Amino acid sequence: MRLRDRARYAFDNTMSRGTPALIGWLGLASALLIILIASVTVVLTPGDAGHNGHWPGMLWRTLMRAIDPGTVGGDTGSHTFLALMLAVTVGGIFIVSALIGVLTTGLEAKIADLRKGHSKIIERNHTVLLGWSDQVFTVISELVKANQSQRRACVAVLADQDKVDMEEAIRHNVGDLGNTRVVCRRGDPLKPTDMELVSPGTARSIMVITPPAGDADTHVIKVLLSLGARDWEAHRPPVVAAVTNSANLSAARLAGGEGAHVVDADDIGVRLVVQSHRQSGLSTVCTDLLDFSGNEFYLRPEPALTGKTYGEALDAYAEGIAVGLRRADGVVTVNPPMDTVIEADDQVIMLAEDDLLIRLADTPPQVVSDAISTTAPEPAKPARTLLIGWNQRAPKIVSLLDAFAEPGSTLDVAAPRDDPRDQLADPANLTMGFTRCDPTDRAALETLDVGSYQHVVVLSDDAHAPQHADARTLVTLLHLRDMEERIGDPYSIVSEINDEGNREVAQVTQADDFVVSTRLISLLLTQLTENHHLRDVFATLLDPMGSEIYLKPATDYLLPDTPANFATIVEAARRRGQTALGYRRREAFHRPPAYGVVLNPDKAAPLTLSADDRVIVLAEQ
Predict the structure, then answer these.
(1) What confidence tier does 432 reach under pLDDT thresholds 50, 70, 90?
(2) Do residues 196 and 118 lie in contact, with contact meaning Cβ atoms separated by under 8 Å?
(3) At residue 441, what are phi and psi to the nearest 5 degrees?
(4) Domains within the chain, CATH numbers bracketed
(5) Which of 1, 224, 297, 388 has the lowest CB atom count within 10 Å?
(6) For helices 3-15 and 19-44, what crossing angle results, to 10°?
(7) How crowded is residue 46: how many other Cβ atoms within 10 Å of its Cβ?
(8) pTM above 0.90?
C-alpha cells in the first residue's frame, strides 16, 4: 500500500473520532500557519520584523492577524511584508475561523448532551429513585420535608424519560425543593452502565418506582434482579420497592435479596379498605403517621427507663408517645403487655413531631380519674354492608370482610358485571347477595335500599383510567350522600380514590373516609428509605395478628362532655392494655387537611370529648 494511502487512512480514522479530532487538526494547522508566516517574515523582511520585535514580536503580530482579519488594514511596510500579512489573514479566515466554529459546535453538542442527562453524578448519602411515575412527585415532596434540617441533601432520579421534561414536571408538581437538590438522569435502570449514572454504590437508599404500565411487577422484579447482580464495592444500600400483585411478592423478595424491603401494595390496600370500613378514619390516621409533615415514628434509646415497665413509660414523656419497643436482637413489639420490662439495650419506639422534641417529663401529668369511663365496650354485633363496584382487589376484600365479620352479618354486592359469587370461596360469617347495578345510575342505586345498611364501601373501577374512575366514584358518592340526607338514617361510607388531588374535591360528598392506597404506599416507601429499621414497626402495625390502629368510641375511655386531658385518655387506655395515640373529632371529619385527626396532643392541655368523637389507640382488637 502506498504511503499516501496509509496517510489518508490514518487521517480518516482520526477525523472519524469527532469534535476532539477536528479541534486537534485545526489547532495544529493554525499553529503551523502562524509559525511559518512569522518565520518567513523574519527571514524575508528583517526590517519590518525588527520593527515588530524580531521573531517573538512577529509571532504575536501574525497571531493577531489570523484571529482578527480587520487588523491587516492598519499595516505598513514593504510589499513582501504586506503580502505575508495578507496571506496569514486569509489563512486565518479559513483555518482559525473553522477552529472557532468547531469549538462552538462541540460546546453546543456537549451542553445538549448534558441536558439529555448522560453524565455521571458524584454524590454521597443521596436517595436514588429508579423509574418514573406520578409516585415520584409524592416521594420527592416527602423527602423535601424530611430533609428540611439538612444543609445538603440530594435525590437522584434515573428513568427512560427526557431529563428536561422530568425536571420541569418535578418543578410543576412539587414546587419549592427547599434544601434538597433533585438531579435527573436519562437511562434504563435495567442496564448496568445506565445505573452507574446515579452512583448507587454511594447512595443512602434506593427506591424502585412502580411504573404505570400494566405489567408493572415484572419491571420491578427485573430492576431488583439488576441491583442484586451488581458488584457492590463497599456496602449495599437498603432497597425498597412495592408490587401491585400479591402473587409476585415472593418472587420480588427473592430477586431483591436480603437487602431489599418489598411491600405488598395490593395486600395493604385491601386491609386499609376493610379496616376503614369497620372504623372510618383509619386511612386518614395512616396518612398522618406516614407523611413527614406531622408526627412520625422514631427509635430512641432511653437509659433512664431501664428497669421500668412499658406501662410506666406511657406517662414518662412530656412530649412524644411511647408506642412499643425494639429489643437488642431487633425484635419489634408494638403495644406490648403493660408489664413488659424495658432492658438496657432496648430502643423505645416513639411517636413525635420530631426526634429533637422528644423529652422526658419532670413529673407525670395530672390524671383526672373522675373522668375515666368504666363502661365496658359494646360487644360487636352482626352488620349489613353494601359493596358498590368491583375491581381486582374485590375478591380479597370480600374474604377479609368475612374474616372480620360477626356471624350472621350480611354483604351485598352491587356492580356492573356478572354475579361473582360462583368464583369466590364460601364465606364463613357472611351471607352474600348480588345485584347487577351501574354505580353512577341514581335509579339503580335507589333500588338497593341503601338505608338498610350500616356500612357502604365504594370501590374504584379498574376498567377506567384513574381520573375517569375517580369521577365515576364521585358521582356515586354524591348520589349516596343525597339519598342519606333524604332518608335521614346515616350510614358510614368508605371509598377508594386513585388520585390524592381528588380527595379535597370529594369532601363535598362527606364520605367518612377515603382510601388513597397509591399515596399511602408511596409514603410508606419513603419512610423506609429514610429509616429502614421502621420496616418491622410498620409490618407489625399492618399485621392483623398483633396490635393494630383502632378508632374506638370516646365513651370507652372518657365520660362524654366531661373536662379532662389527654393524659387521662392515656391512663384509661393503659388500663385496657392499649396505647392511646390521639383522637378524632366528629365535627371536623370533613375538614381538610387533618379531617379531625389529632395525634400526639399535649397531655396536660384541657380536653373534652363528645360521644360522637373517637379515640385512636393501638390494641389487639
Answers:
(1) very high
(2) no
(3) -90, 110
(4) 3-114 (1.10.287.70), 119-258 (3.40.50.720), 271-621 (3.40.50.720)
(5) 1
(6) 120
(7) 11
(8) no
